[in-house]
Amino acid sequence: MTKKITLIINDWNPIEIYPLLDIEYDSEVKQIYELLTLNDTKSELAEKIYQVFEKKFGKLFQNTLIECEVIAEKILNALNN
């Protein structure tokens, strides 16, 4: 399950790390996975994603909560398939 989340987060690359290593966001993916519950709504998961990245990267993380909702939706769709 974390593999699907990793693929989505790496594709998003919210801090725009280049070159991006496959393990670049491993700790954030693990935190998102640990915070994820089976009944999370898109908005709830988006808030968790936003908090994880804001806490870790501070001002380097300039994405909005709306952008995190797009990622949350992708994650929820991937986990349901």
Query: How far apart, in Å, are the first and last alpha carbons?
Result: 11 Å
Number of domains: 1
- The fraction of residues assigned to DSSP E strands is under 5%
Largest sheet: none
Structural account:
With 81 residues, this protein is mostly helical. It has one domain (2-80): Endonuclease III, domain 1 (Orthogonal Bundle). It is 65% helix and 0% strand. The protein has helices spanning 2-12, 26-35, 42-57, 65-80.
In short:
By secondary structure, the protein is mainly alpha-helical.
What descriptive keywords fit this protein?
single chain; 81 residues; mainly alpha; Endonuclease III, domain 1
Question: What topology emerges from the helices and strands here?
Answer:
Blueprint: H1 2-12, H2 26-35, H3 42-57, H4 65-80
Helix pairs in contact: 1-2, 1-4, 2-3, 3-4
